[in-house]
Design goal:
241 residues; alpha/beta; Purple Acid Phosphatase, chain A, domain 2; 6 helices; globular
């Protein structure tokens, strides 16, 4: 098994930092940060360490250290709470926006968790897009159907691949899915490992409509890098959770 820092797929790179880089426009893309997850869980009585922001900031610092970035796109679900803006969300999203604005331009696509994000973004004159076209790709979050025939890049799915080792422990690898007319981005959220796509747990209606079986699956190991797992249809029955 080969581990690499990035994978060059022509117009774009997949990075081990949960992001996709469009080479021509120097645009870095990430989805499903789910900022504020810890406060939402605390309201439900589950108290988690507030570590997501620091993890995201480590990722961003590495991206700007190793790549020349002119623009940064968040492809949906910047925040986590559906029904309001919570204090943690507001403070941490502002912190991230200020960090990014000092370095590049920012675009944000609306995700299904981003109902009240517009109020935060407006303070910084950032528009919340339902979809956005960059180069030859349409960026849309993925929680609703899309009838266009362009190649789409989505989030929402939080795709992952799960292995069970001989002791019974499950190892989860957030993963990129790269198909002929769709790319699905992983989530960097430590508290949302995602759906086991090999077991058939597919959430996005766009992914359901476009999946053909010949999609390539690339997993992320935080310590080592990107792993090419193989073709979607060939993995069924070989990986189990």
């Amino acid at each position: 098994m080969v581990f690499v820092e990035e994978i060059d797929l022509g117009d774009f790179l997949l990075t081990k930092y949960y992001s996709l880089y469009l080479k021509k426009t120097k645009t870095m893309v990430m989805a499903d940060l789910h900022i504020g997850f810890e406060d939402v869980m605390a309201e439900k009585g589950l108290f988690l360490p507030k570590i997501q922001k620091s993890i995201i900031m480590d990722i961003l610092e590495n991206l700007f250290r190793y790549y020349e970035i002119d623009s940064f796109l968040i492809d949906g679900d910047f925040k986590h709470e559906f029904s309001k803006n919570m204090k943690q969300e507001w403070n941490e999203i502002e912190f991230i926006i200020k960090y990014l604005k000092d370095k590049c331009s920012i675009s944000v696509v609306r995700g299904n968790h981003d109902n009240y994000l517009k109020g935060i973004l407006a303070k910084y004159d950032i528009k919340l897009h339902d979809r956005l076209k960059i180069e030859n790709y349409v960026f849309i979050h993925g929680h609703r159907k899309y009838e266009g025939d362009e190649k789409v890049i989505i989030g929402h799915e939080h795709p992952s691949v799960k292995f069970r080792d001989p002791s019974g422990s499950i190892i989860t690898y957030p993963s990129f899915v790269v198909g002929e007319n769709i790319i699905v981005l992983p989530s960097p959220s430590i508290y949302s490992s995602g759906s086991d796509i090999i077991a058939g747990e597919i959430l996005s209606p766009i992914f359901k409509d476009r999946i053909k079986g010949n999609e390539r699956i690339y997993g992320i190991d935080n310590k080592i890098g990107l792993i090419y797992f193989g073709i979607y249809k060939d993995l069924k029955g070989k990986i189990f959770s």
